[in-house]
Specification:
The chain has 303 residues and is an alpha/beta fold. Among the domains are: 67 residues; 68 residues, Helix Hairpins (Orthogonal Bundle), CATH 1.10.287. It contains 13 helices and ten strands. The protein has a six-stranded parallel beta sheet, with helices on both faces. A two-stranded parallel ribbon has the order 3-7. Helix 2 crosses helix 3 and helix 8 packs across helix 12. The protein starts with a strand and ends with a helix.
Length: 303
């Protein structure tokens, strides 16, 4: 497998499509929000990127479920495993493309803990605690239940506590999250922070001018609950708040822009964690054109 990862607005899709074209490959999206239908502009699906010179590169795990549905990491892992074998049987190369580090790590390392069920009662109780209280509760579990966990955000911290609670109640179950690393070459797109920030800001303004507000408005009119859109985060959260008149337009844009910058920083932090946890990443200069990076990747694979 070839993996192209990087923060938002780094040019992952453009590069992955070109690599797939040269290697007779198929692209597998590794994005926790592109699985939802009709959430196109806000998630940056850029489906026109998959066609080059009238040739459309096959892609997978985009538009899998309806907007408003629940789609968990474990479901993604199952869907990924379901489509991977047929791609290989066709003699084609899977090219994974995305920025959702947790999903990437799960499929590369074969995490088993994703099968641990949601505990709604525990989640409701944890929602009343502060971030500091959650972190303290998380630290009280033995290291064998928490060493693998990502507790960088409130949502992930709650899930980590949920999993650790399950493991402590079922100590004989092997849900350590350890698995064998498939044969994979992992490439990451790296950008100077100031360039990344400028790309994010420019792209946000372009999307706001080209239908992103109307996209969220259509989802609300169709009956997708506002609470669900807010749960999806970033563009869908802040635009929903704007459309519900909870935020004025300038405040919405400022807060959304800040949130996306923070998200990109968290993405890079997670990728560095992946490296520390044993997944080697070959970092590429994201300022180089996709065509140049494609040749670099192909040369590296040959060597």
């Amino acid at each position: 497998m070839i993996v192209i990862l990087g923060p938002t607005a780094s040019g992952k899709t453009r590069l992955a499509v070109r690599v797939a074209r040269r290697l007779n490959g198929e692209v597998i999206s590794v994005d926790s929000r592109q699985v939802y239908r009709d959430m196109d502009i806000g998630t940056g699906k850029d489906l026109d990127e998959y066609t080059i010179d009238n040739q459309t590169i096959p892609y997978h795990l985009i538009n899998v479920v309806d907007a408003g549905s629940d789609y968990l990491l474990y479901q993604y892992q199952q869907d990924f495993n379901r489509i991977l074998s047929p791609i290989l049987e066709r003699g084609r190369i899977p090219v994974l493309c995305g920025g959702t580090g947790l999903y990437l790590e799960a499929v590369l390392k074969g995490h088993q803990y994703t099968a641990i069920p949601v505990n709604e009662e525990l989640r409701r109780a944890l929602q009343t605690e502060t971030d500091e209280q959650l972190l303290e509760r998380f630290r009280q579990f033995p290291a064998e239940y928490t060493a693998w966990a990502d507790s960088s955000t409130r949502k992930r911290r709650i899930r980590a506590i949920e999993i650790a609670t399950y493991l402590s109640a079922h100590p004989t179950t092997d849900f350590s999250g350890k698995g064998s690393l498939p044969d994979a070459a992992v490439f990451g797109l790296d950008l100077p922070v100031e360039v990344r920030r400028q790309r994010i800001s420019d792209r946000l303004r372009e999307r706001l001018q080209n239908g992103m507000i109307e996209e969220v408005e259509r989802l609300l009119e169709r009956g997708v609950p506002a609470e669900k859109l807010i749960f999806y985060g970033l563009e869908y959260k802040f635009l929903t708040q704007y459309l519900r008149r909870e935020l004025d337009y300038p405040t919405m844009v400022t807060r959304l822009e800040t949130a996306i910058h923070q998200f990109a920083k968290r993405q890079m932090t997670f990728f560095r964690k992946m490296e520390r946890d044993g997944i080697p990443i070959r970092w590429l200069d994201g300022l180089q054109p996709a065509e140049v990076l494609t040749e670099l990747i192909l040369n590296e694979l040959r060597s």
